[in-house]
Design a protein that fits this description.
This protein has helices at residues 2-22, 24-28, 89-97, 119-136, 151-162, 177-184, 190-193, 200-203, 224-233, 250-253, 256-270, and strands at 30-31, 47-52, 58-64, 73-78, 82-83, 100-105, 144-149, 167-171, 211-215, 238-242. The chain is of the alpha/beta class.
């Protein structure tokens, strides 16, 4: 009787492990195809951008120029795992008001971008976006700040480690997918089953530019400790900006705290050599 019970439990446990292994992509990525708005809806001039990745995938994005040409510099924006670029208009407005030109892209499989989503694919998407800013738009690497929110933070860290941007901003970021999975499913061998890594903490080892980590203690999806761990893993110069609110609205509800913290970091890294050595934690 006990043997039969253990066998049944083992079968159920094995079936759930198989489910986790096969369904990871659907548990991580939540793309939406239809764009619901454009920057023009919030009175921002923009250019529709078409990119082709090194593996031939067609991507779509928007380039929102600064009011006075190049402005302070450019921000390369990598969004989170759900929705598409049309759900990031508030952030585009904030960065525009901070004097930056901004390029935001949809990963393959998101919005009007073609292809099927994958971890390797998102890294190739990031490379294509970087090449567009540094090549077509002729921003020097030191004029570019790479920004990533949530899943996008892992992608931003990858490209910041591969290139040499002026700065890197990680907002509401996790340390890695296996770390998050182990927290969500503590009784499952998640680290053995994980086909996705997005190891931002490891990628930070290759990042040499100034880093700003932004996180809220009230984040309801990614624990505040993840932000602290990323901050500890980053090299100097670095800053930590503590904001308020939950995972999806922290940047908005934090208001002046968020905007001033962003502006201080952006100004410090784009104001010329020797001006980016702002160290320590900012609350």
């Amino acid at each position: 009787m006990i043997g039969t019970l253990l066998f049944v439990v083992g079968v159920i446990y094995g079936a759930f492990c198989l489910y986790l292994y096969l369904m990871q992509g659907r548990m991580i990525f939540y793309p939406i195809g239809k764009l619901t708005a454009t920057p023009a809806d919030i009175s921002l001039h923009y250019e529709s951008v078409a990119l082709t990745t090194s593996d031939g995938v067609k991507l779509h994005g928007w380039f929102v120029p600064a009011r006075d040409g190049k402005g302070k510099g450019a921000l390369l924006f990598f969004h989170g795992n759900a929705g598409n670029i049309s759900h990031r208009l508030e952030s585009l407005k904030i960065f525009h008001n901070l004097g930056l030109s901004t390029l935001i892209i949809d990963y393959r499989g998101y919005g009007e971008s073609k292809g099927a989503i994958s971890e390797k694919g998102t890294y190739l998407d990031a490379e294509a976006a970087w090449d567009y800013l540094a090549g077509t738009k002729e921003f020097s690497p030191q004029e570019i700040i790479v920004f990533g929110r949530s899943l996008g933070a892992a992608i931003a860290t990858y490209i910041a480690g591969r290139e040499e941007p002026g700065g890197l901003i990680l907002e509401s970021a996790f340390t890695s997918v296996p770390d998050m999975g182990a927290r969500m499913y503590p009784y499952m061998p998640v680290r053995l089953l994980s086909r996705f890594k997005y190891d931002a903490r490891k990628a930070l080892q290759s990042v040499t530019c100034p880093v700003l980590v932004v996180h809220s203690p009230h984040d309801d999806i990614i624990p505040f400790e993840n932000g602290l761990q990323l901050y500890e893993s980053a090299r100097q110069p670095k800053k930590f900006l503590e904001i308020r609110g939950d995972h999806n609205e922290g940047f908005y509800v934090s208001g002046k705290i968020y905007i001033d913290g962003m502006n201080d970091f952006i100004t410090s890294v784009l104001s010329g050599p020797g001006q980016s050595n702002n160290r320590g934690r900012q609350n």
